[in-house]
Amino acid sequence: MTLDTKSIAPKFAALIRSHAYFHKWKKKGARAFWNLEEPISKGAELVLFKGSFEKNQLVGLGLHLSIVTTVVPWLQGTSISWKNGRLQTTAFVLRNGQIGEPSLGEGVWSLGSQHDLDSMMRGLSGLLDSVAIPFLERSKSIQNYLNWCQSYFEVPTSLPITLAVQGQRAARNDLLDWLLHGPDSRPRKDLFDWAVENKLLTQTAAARLELASIQAKEQFLQQTRSIVEELRAAEERRRS
């Protein structure tokens, strides 16, 4: 039987409501359910993707974690975003039982018929119990949330979360450590602009680091290392 996309949302809603863990969660939008308790609000959403070369409907299960903060991420997208005073992170429950980024084949479900939809719902039922709920439970405390974000996103993507939870000193230290040890990719200008705006770097330091980042690789690494060591030494002198 051909897939009726309108049946996806009610089937997902029935699945969520059949699990005791989600009984107090509120429906928000077409295919999302949220627990709005603080300090970390949690959401589960069935996300419909559009594939450029895929006739079937691509679907993934996204898990959202959201905290109140004025810190706006320097890089926003599907995985990390900010809206209405909340910073939200999103990871997906993959078909192989892992938490990660969705990808064709392993990451998302491809639905071309009602049979595919029913099969996905059976698979999701087990993944809710074995993957999604344990993940959401582990993320109840701010410290566990921070630990997961820092391991999942890594620096510099994780810097806004570190800043929001641990403050400027911790975020600045993570940024300088990342620069000192030679990042795999060259820092982007918007990262330096964000660091200045959030007082992790001075305008002068950011300008010097930005200039170093456009040099040949060896010069870039050498100059960046030298600037960071200089900044660290100046910080030590201020503290003593």
Q: Could you explain how this protein is built, in words?
A:
The chain has two domains: 5-143, no CATH class; 167-233, no CATH class. Helix content is 46%, strand content 18%. The protein is built from eight helices and eight strands, in the order αββββββββααααααα. The mean pLDDT is 93. Helix 1 (8-17) packs across helix 2 (114-138), helix 5 (168-180) packs antiparallel against helix 8 (217-239) and helix 7 (203-213) packs antiparallel against helix 8 (217-239). Strands 1, 2, 3, 4, 5, 6, 7 and 8 form an eight-stranded antiparallel beta sheet that branches. It is α+β, with helices and mostly antiparallel strands and 240 residues long. The protein starts with 7 loop residues before the first helix and ends with a helix. The longest helix is centred in the middle third of the chain and has 25 residues, at 114-138. The protein has helices spanning 8-17, 114-138, 142-153, 159-166, 168-180, 189-197, 203-213, 217-239, and strands at residues 26-27, 32-35, 41-49, 57-68, 80-83, 86-93, 99-100, 109-111.
